[in-house]
């Protein structure tokens, strides 16, 4: 290439290394090979055959399109679905007819190109990506002239205030995004859940309270606070405490999912002797019944898999494993801190309730968690 | 066998037939009088595109994106991106009567109550896999063959951005049906965002519009998925294509192919027909996949419920590698100090690592250029073996990727192979560091020995396996010269240039300090190129030729080939 920019640089302005010039002529490659004729170029019969093949593919494609329409209207979907070899017949035949029809067009066109269109390779000269020296100079001149006439170099006051104005012009756009979030974006919101002192634990689907006598050793239940499981009419009840007092008004259905995420718990009974006694959690269990947040402290999957003998609980998402006999400590995996535990109590009839909200935030870690 | 030693340099081939003005001509006239496009079209209608199977990978990506657009538009007609809960009354009996979001409801409606709806959904999902997969492999092709070098660095950067956007597009789309699996993904995304130091909590509030899950995430992901990202992708694809046309496609070294020309088929008709036909093949293949292979059966997962999860929850494969890193990093990397928490196990693996890798990929052409000190334009591709260190780097990246992907499926591997998940994790914690290093080293050595073999063949011909006995009883193996195309691949490549430090004192006697950066550059340059074998020079080939003249038995000297080799040695 004759263009200067295309020659190996001898010396690099910024650094001190340079590329030496190539030592010898290395252009030893052979030239363009001669064209080889295809059967379709020299044999009219082969040419005709190829032509018919291509046309046949196109006709087949038309047939497929028609069959698609037939399949669309003749197979039932929904409740009385037609099946074929275990597939949904509609989906299967729509896919087959559409797919084969399209493939036939594609194969046909490519076949046409390969067999019948000219297969003489041609060569074209490349040009360096850069414009010519002349063009560059002209452009540079135009640019300089334009900038000169604007006086942007001579009037720094205007230039700088303009830059400032443009920077500030972005501010409204960014600020207007603020209300993507709720008014209150305080991290302290993440510290509280629906739980409060005296709130009964109910089964997550049925919504019935849990009696200590219902649980055998080794049993595990999924729970929610009373008030987060809709009753048979689909309404959320107001949670009632052990003394019959209403703990808080019934929750708006809108908020249900948000509260449910943070409040889900698991209740597990083990033999009291298995529990590793932690001085500040002396009697958080009720006869070996312990209660922990169900939300993994890693990135928040609900934890599901219980290993009976070890009281280890495994998160199916990234396999963090927590020891429920030992304050929910992480024994394996990527979770960074223990599962929050709930201080449990039972009323006179034996129904389990919470002695208060969790004493640490549930779910994934965040900056302000502390 | 005949040889043309001429390097073609003009558009030739068949002569254009002249005739009376055709209908096409009249239409073209009409358009040109209004649009004046003839000037542009004259250069491009017969633009030359070289042919090679590996150039098709990018086409698969392009066409699968078109399939995504077409099927995606159809899906928007029925999909309702709302998180409002309603009672399901559709055709899928097991879920009838349960309360689900409008998004999940409409996804079920598309799957069960719209004819062809399931096909469209499945085609859309399969095409997404194809889109991201083909972009990834296309990028590897460009990397391994050096097609990103000057003047194509910007197109490489655009490509990396496309891959990144494609992945995000995949993730947002995966989340839309609001089934249990996608909800689990969104839940994890909340944890990812929260792990970002200082601003993570705000990020989560802003993204979800409230505490997770809020009521806005599905409609927001929807508009990102159908408008924002596709718009960006379309714009970048347009730029990618324009640059491709402007630079003209790279080509493999071969007979008659040089840095100064491009040899192949003209855009009209052959390339247009092949590329256009290929669109229908990609479309047809996705339709067949959609008809025959179930993908993402959301009805089996059920609606999202933040207290439920399915065992073996997996993201789509392209999110698998960060997910794998997320699984094997030990939890003790989470630290708390001064009243704040650094959720490093999450932040390092799913936020920082992908950012670093994308940044590295974006910068790679410039790093590569800095190491080589090469300012030339390059249009001939390099064989992976001819750049042992770079190929080794790709091997290291692939090894890292695959190990991380394995880690992402560690639970499934554990169950299938009946291994302990803990042991797999411990193994992978070490392998993720050692594997890539090992892969780099092995690949680099392997490439160099392939180079040695190639050079041997270029000089002395290839071994035919025919043993001959000479009249005086000596045995020798018959060697034949390589076919032209192969020979050109070996001798036609550029030689590597080692950088040299300029003398410490310049010609005026002024001392020139060699700074650290320069020394690093030099060391990398040596590491990158010093072990490589260089292609044979004309003189070496000449010498080898004479060597064979002296020892008859060593090589078959078929008369016709003498001329060939002369032509080859002299170049033209
Ligand atoms: S969310 Fe439980 S281990 Fe990641």
TrEMBL record, chain A:
Q: Which residues cross the membrane?
A: 54-75, 87-110, 157-177
**Does this UniProt record's set of keywords contain Cell membrane?**
yes
Q: Which Gene3D superfamilies match?
A: Rieske [2Fe-2S] iron-sulphur domain
* Location (main, coarse): membrane
- Which controlled-vocabulary keywords does the entry list? 2Fe-2S, Cell membrane, Disulfide bond, Electron transport, Iron, Iron-sulfur, Membrane, Metal-binding, Oxidoreductase, Respiratory chain, Transmembrane, Transmembrane helix, Transport
Q: Where is this region: Disordered?
A: 1-40
Q: Which SUPFAM superfamilies match?
A: ISP domain
Q: Where in the cell is it found?
A: Cell membrane
Q: Which Pfam families match?
A: QcrA_N, Rieske
Its domain of life reads: Bacteria
List, for all copies, the residue spans of the domain called Rieske. Answer: 284-353
InterPro entries given in the database record:
QcrA_N, Rieske_2Fe-2S, Rieske_2Fe-2S_sf, Rieske_Fe-S_prot, Rieske_Fe-S_prot_C
Q: What membrane topology term does the record carry?
A: Multi-pass membrane protein
An example molecular function term from Gene Ontology annotations? 2 iron, 2 sulfur cluster binding
Gene Ontology cellular component?
Answer: plasma membrane
Q: Which cofactor does it need?
A: [2Fe-2S] cluster
Question: In UniProt terms, what function does this protein have?
Answer: Iron-sulfur subunit of the cytochrome bc1 complex, an essential component of the respiratory electron transport chain required for ATP synthesis. The bc1 complex catalyzes the oxidation of menaquinol and the reduction of cytochrome c in the respiratory chain. The bc1 complex operates through a Q-cycle mechanism that couples electron transfer to generation of the proton gradient that drives ATP synthesis.
* Family stated for the protein in its record: Belongs to the Rieske iron-sulfur protein family.
Q: Could you tell me what this protein is called?
A: Cytochrome bc1 complex Rieske iron-sulfur subunit
Q: What is the lineage of its organism?
A: Bacteria, Bacillati, Actinomycetota, Actinomycetes, Propionibacteriales
UniProtKB/TrEMBL annotation, chain B:
GO CC term (a single one):
plasma membrane
| Protein name as catalogued | Cytochrome bc1 complex cytochrome b subunit
Q: What species is given as this protein's source? A: Nocardioides zeae
Which EC class is the enzyme in?
translocase
Q: Where are the transmembrane segments?
A: 53-79, 126-144, 156-176, 222-246, 277-299, 342-367, 388-406, 426-443
Starting at the broadest rank, the lineage of the source organism is: Bacteria, Bacillati, Actinomycetota, Actinomycetes, Propionibacteriales
Q: EC number(s)?
A: 7.1.1.8
Q: Which reaction does it catalyse?
A: a quinol + 2 Fe(III)-[cytochrome c](out) = a quinone + 2 Fe(II)-[cytochrome c](out) + 2 H(+)(out)
Positions of the Cytochrome b/b6 N-terminal region profile domain: 27-253
Topology in membrane: Multi-pass membrane protein
Q: Which Gene3D superfamilies match?
A: Cytochrome Bc1 Complex, Chain C
In this chain, composition skew of type Polar residues spans 1-13
MF GO annotations? metal ion binding; oxidoreductase activity; quinol-cytochrome-c reductase activity
What cofactors does this protein use?
heme
């Amino acid at each position: 290439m004759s263009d200067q920019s295309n020659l190996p640089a001898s010396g690099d302005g910024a650094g001190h290394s340079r590329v030496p010039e190539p030592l010898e002529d290395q252009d030893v490659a052979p030239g363009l090979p001669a064209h080889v004729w295809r059967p379709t170029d020299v044999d009219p019969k082969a040419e005709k055959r190829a032509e018919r093949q291509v046309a046949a593919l196109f006709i087949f494609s038309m047939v497929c399109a028609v069959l698609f329409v037939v399949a669309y209207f003749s197979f039932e979907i929904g409740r009385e679905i037609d099946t074929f070899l275990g597939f949904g017949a509609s989906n299967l035949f729509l896919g087959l007819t559409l797919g084969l029809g399209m493939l036939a067009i594609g194969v046909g066109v490519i076949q046409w190109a390969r067999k019948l269109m000219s297969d003489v390779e041609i060569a074209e000269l490349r040009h360096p990506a850069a414009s010519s020296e002349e063009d560059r100079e002209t452009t540079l001149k135009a640019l300089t002239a334009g900038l000169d006439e604007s006086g942007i170099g001579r009037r720094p006051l205007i230039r700088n205030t303009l830059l400032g104005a443009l920077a500030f012009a972005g501010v409204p756009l960014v600020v207007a995004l603020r209300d993507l979030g709720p008014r209150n974006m305080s991290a302290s919101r993440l510290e509280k859940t629906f739980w409060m002192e005296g709130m009964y634990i109910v089964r997550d689907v049925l919504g019935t309270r849990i009696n200590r006598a219902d649980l055998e050793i080794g049993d595990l239940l999924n729970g929610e606070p009373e008030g987060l499981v809709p009753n048979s009419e689909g309404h959320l009840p107001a949670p009632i405490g052990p003394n019959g007092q209403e703990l808080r008004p019934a929750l708006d259905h809108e908020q249900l999912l948000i509260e449910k995420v943070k409040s889900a718990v698991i209740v597990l009974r083990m033999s009291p002797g298995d529990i590793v006694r932690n001085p500040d959690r002396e009697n958080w269990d009720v006869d070996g019944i312990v209660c922990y947040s169900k939300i993994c402290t890693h990135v928040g999957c609900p934890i599901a898999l219980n290993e009976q003998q070890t009281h280890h609980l495994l998160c199916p998402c990234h396999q963090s494993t927590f020891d429920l006999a030992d304050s929910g400590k992480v024994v394996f995996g990527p979770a960074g801190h223990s599962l929050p535990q709930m201080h449990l109590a039972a009323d006179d009839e034996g129904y389990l309730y919470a002695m208060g909200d969790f004493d640490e935030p549930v779910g994934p870690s965040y900056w302000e968690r502390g | 066998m005949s040889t043309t030693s001429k390097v073609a340099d003009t558009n030739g081939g068949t002569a254009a037939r002249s005739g009376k003005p055709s209908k096409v001509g009249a239409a073209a006239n009409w358009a040109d009088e209004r649009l004046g496009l003839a000037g542009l079209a004259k250069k491009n209608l017969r633009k030359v595109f070289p042919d090679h199977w590996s150039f098709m990978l990018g086409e698969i990506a392009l066409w699968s994106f078109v399939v995504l657009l077409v099927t995606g538009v159809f899906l928007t007609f029925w999909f309702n991106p709302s998180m409002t809960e309603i009672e399901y009354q559709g055709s899928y009996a097991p879920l009838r009567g349960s309360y689900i979001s409008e998004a999940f409801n409409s996804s079920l409606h598309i799957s069960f109550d719209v004819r062809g709806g399931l096909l469209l959904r499945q085609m859309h999902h399969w095409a997404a896999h194809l889109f991201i997969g083909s972009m990834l492999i296309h990028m590897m092709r460009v990397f391994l063959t050096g097609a990103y070098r000057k003047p194509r660095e910007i197109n490489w950067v655009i490509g990396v951005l496309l891959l990144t956007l494609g992945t995000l597009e995949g993730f947002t789309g995966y989340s839309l049906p609001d089934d249990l699996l996608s909800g689990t993904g969104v839940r994890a995304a909340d944890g990812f965002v929260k792990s970002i130091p200082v601003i993570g909590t705000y990020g989560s509030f802003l993204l979800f519009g409230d505490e997770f899950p809020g009521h806005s995430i599905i409609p927001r992901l929807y508009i990102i998925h159908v408008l924002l990202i596709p718009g960006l992708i379309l714009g970048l694809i347009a730029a990618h294509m324009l640059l491709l046309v402007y630079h003209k496609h790279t080509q493999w070294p071969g007979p008659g192919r040089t840095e100064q020309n491009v040899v192949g088929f003209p855009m009209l008709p052959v390339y247009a027909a092949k590329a256009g036909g290929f669109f229908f093949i990609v479309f047809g293949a996705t339709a067949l996949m959609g008809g025959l292979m179930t993908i993402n059966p959301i009805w089996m997962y059920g609606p999202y419920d933040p207290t439920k999860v399915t065992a073996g929850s997996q993201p789509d494969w392209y999110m698998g590698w960060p997910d794998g890193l997320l699984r094997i990093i030990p939890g003790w990397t989470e630290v708390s100090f001064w009243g704040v928490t650094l959720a490093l196990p999450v932040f390092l693996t799913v936020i920082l690592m992908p950012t670093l890798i994308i940044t590295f990929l974006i910068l790679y052409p410039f790093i590569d250029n800095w190491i080589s000190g090469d300012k030339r334009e390059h249009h001939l591709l390099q064989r992976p073996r001819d750049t042992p260190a770079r190929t080794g780097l790709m091997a290291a990246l692939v090894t890292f990727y695959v190990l991380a992907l394995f880690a992402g499926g560690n639970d499934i591997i554990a169950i299938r192979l009946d291994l302990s998940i803990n042991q797999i994790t411990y193994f992978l914690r070490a392998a993720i560091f050692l594997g890539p290093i090992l892969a780099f080293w092995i690949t680099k050595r392997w490439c160099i020995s392939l180079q040695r073999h190639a050079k041997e063949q270029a000089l002395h011909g290839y071994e035919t396996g025919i043993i001959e006995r000479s009249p005086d009883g000596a045995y020798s193996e018959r060697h034949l010269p390589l076919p032209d195309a192969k020979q050109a691949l070996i001798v036609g490549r550029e030689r590597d240039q080692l950088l040299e430090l300029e003398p410490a004192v310049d010609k005026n006697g002024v001392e020139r300090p060699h700074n650290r950066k320069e020394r690093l550059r030099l060391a990398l340059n040596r590491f990158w190129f010093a072990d490589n074998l260089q292609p044979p020079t004309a003189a070496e080939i000449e010498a080898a030729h004479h060597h064979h003249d002296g020892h008859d038995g060593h090589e078959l000297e078929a008369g016709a080939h003498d001329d060939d080799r002369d032509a080859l040695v002299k170049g033209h």
